[in-house]
Design goal:
Two copies of one chain form a homodimer.
Chain A: E1 4-6, E2 10-13, H1 26-29, E3 32-37, E4 53-59, E5 69-70, E6 81-82, E7 95-106, E8 109-113, E9 122-128, H2 131-134
Antiparallel strand pairs in A: 2-3, 2-9, 3-8, 4-7, 4-9, 5-6, 7-8
């Protein structure tokens, strides 16, 4: 099958510097971070406001793309299962999906709560959460 | 910024053959389709069962990647807004996010309900829906 190319639309700025510091999942931990969006796509942010819920799609650039089975939540006591049945960052296309709350928007910098990605992680897309679609 | 490459993990098989036939959004319309997953990543499906809710991430290969502002739901009466504040397929990285219900799993073929992608659309990832993370 054909490959496709992804171009990051920005980067995460976070006090989480290494993968082992990142919470297993961002939302319950309520980690705050900034999405530093590329000025070239600034127009794409029009309409995003404080208080919005967004899906932030990241690219886990440090993930292992060969992994197909993992222990869920890295818990050795749980039997391994397929990566597509888990939220492991290790997977063939290491896309992270995090639902975040927008705390503020200043130009191309979005401050958000609930992101489990480390500093420097590429951001590849943002989408509004729409209850009728996403529940 | 660096580009990354994506390799599809499968394709959509659907009676929707062209983009204009696709519903604005898949879930309310309840469209049934099949996810034909590549046998090379079959192990990644272990643990996915009938009745599961999954996010299916697709690559809208026919989308316009230059578009930064659109009329939401293609409704000309609504003012244009940034693509990151909409679910438009036209966006810099044309990833589609659809929450689907798994109707059956037979080998590497997942029959699902709620997908708005046309026949042949590349599938790039599958993730379980986890209420504590995704609401």
């Amino acid at each position: 099958m054909d490959d496709y190319w992804l171009r990051p639309i920005g980067r995460v700025r976070s006090h989480l510097k290494q993968r082992h510091e990142a919470p297993r999942q961002g939302r319950p931990a309520g980690v705050e971070a900034e999405l530093i969006i590329d000025k070239a796509v600034k127009k794409g942010l029009e309409g995003i406001d404080t208080g919005d819920k967004l899906f932030a799609l990241c690219w886990y650039h440090m993930a292992d793309r060969q992994t197909l089975r993992v222990h869920p939540r890295a818990d050795q006591s749980i039997a391994k299962r397929g990566v597509f049945a888990t939220r492991s960052p290790d997977r063939p296309n290491p896309i992270g999906l995090c639902l975040v709350d927008v705390i503020s928007v200043k130009g191309t910098v979005l401050k958000v709560r609930g992101l489990d990605a480390v500093d420097g992680t590429p951001i590849i897309d943002l989408k509004p959460y729409i209850k009728a679609l996403d529940t």
